[in-house]
Amino acid sequence: MIKRYWWSLLVGALVIVSIGLYYILAAPEPLPQLVLKHQSGEEHAADNLLLYGYYSRGGIMNPLTVTSEGTSYSYRQSLLKEAFNYRGDVFWKDLIDRYPRFMRSKDAAEGFYEDDSKLVYAGTKQRSDWNLFEIAILDKKTGKTFSYTAEVPDNDKYETIEVFDVQVVNGLVKIMTRNYNAPANTSTIHLYTCATEEKSVVSDRLLFSEPAGKEKEIRTSFRLYLVSGKNPNRYTGFQVEQRKETRDARGAYSNERISVELFLYDLQADQEVQLNSGEVESFMQADNITIELSGEYMTMMSRVKNEGSVKLLRYSIADGATTAQTLSFADKNISNLLLKNNRLYVMAPYTEGDLAPASVLVYDTATGSPVYGGTVMPKDSPIPEELLARFDLSYLGEK
């Protein structure tokens, strides 16, 4: 009897050990850790950078983010982050981390404003056939939220209202929107002013209107330019581009640009900024331009195809002065560029034979001079060259 019990215990122990060994041997090796290390120039100039990409292992693409502190893989995100559906917007992620309760049911990524004392959200919702602004203001000191809805003026004209930007000027909430009129197939850009005490829209300024009766083949696109994040901005702006679509005898479609306009608006003065610059007008004719508003300056960037260079034009909103720069890179096909806060961030990805998955350069857009050089390297232990080729860092972002 005793021998039988001992035999049962021995078999049970062997089963437990076997299961443990199976999971230990079957567990995947730890994913390699990378870090962006400073090599030259200002030590902390790239601390705000996020390098997005993938690491391939066993046929699985593991999404990752590399910073100056290390590497994080998406599967290690908390359940809270996954539940809120991050959508890749860094500002959105940060707000969810800091204010999870306030962020519940907020679904307009562009509809936020933040300063030292408050966080403001402005979105739209429909009640029956009425379009309403939904506004929420979080007092950071007390933690209390004040919310209200305000009817959009002439809202029966618009099928959809899309929020582009939210600012607070002298205690008033400014909301820039694109409104779409379905029967006329036209869009308008509006700047609404909401007064919290009155809980209503006190001003509706029309900034741009598509002409009625336009040809069906004409397509209009809008692009908004803002300072990084949703921080206080004095200026806002948008580009309006119209293209005409044609179809040849073989049935192939093509389109050509027929007009492009740039609008700047001074939110403090509540008036449009007149752009009396031939350099700006000429630069606007380039394809695939990027524009950033930062402080009192507007910086425009255009990539020169197949030459590994970019052209920069810096425009002073205060006095209209311009400064032009051309930056050239060794990689003629470089495409990982980020224009933020009067600086240009450039990432050169890994190519066969490189000793690092990527390198980063930062330029001052005012002078065109490099201010930082960095390399993505193994954080703690060396990584074999064959494993470096598994990394694909292909997108730049900012914290």
Would you kindly provide a written description of the structure presented here, covering whatever features stand out?
This protein has 399 residues and is mainly beta. 12% of the residues lie in helices and 50% in strands. It has helices at 2-26, 79-83, 90-98, 278-283, 385-388, and strands at 34-41, 49-57, 60-66, 71-73, 112-114, 118-127, 130-139, 145-151, 160-169, 172-181, 186-195, 200-209, 218-225, 235-247, 253-266, 271-273, 290-294, 297-304, 309-316, 322-328, 336-340, 343-349, 358-364, 370-378, 391-398. The strands form 6 sheets. It has a 5-stranded antiparallel beta sheet, with no helix packed on it. It starts with a helix and ends with a strand.
Percent of residues in β-strands: over 45%
Class inferred from helices and paired strands: mainly beta
Order of strands across the main sheet: 1-24-23-22-21
- The radius of gyration over CA amounts to 27 Å
Number of beta strands: 25
How many helices does DSSP assign?
A: 5
Describe the biggest sheet?
Answer: 5 strands, antiparallel
Oligomer: single chain
Q: Level of helix content?
A: 10-25%
The 3D shape can be described as globular
Question: How are helices and strands ordered from N to C?
Answer: HEEEEHHEEEEEEEEEEEEHEEEEEEEEHE
Distance between the termini: 68 Å
Uncertain runs are 17-27, 76-88
Mean pLDDT: 81
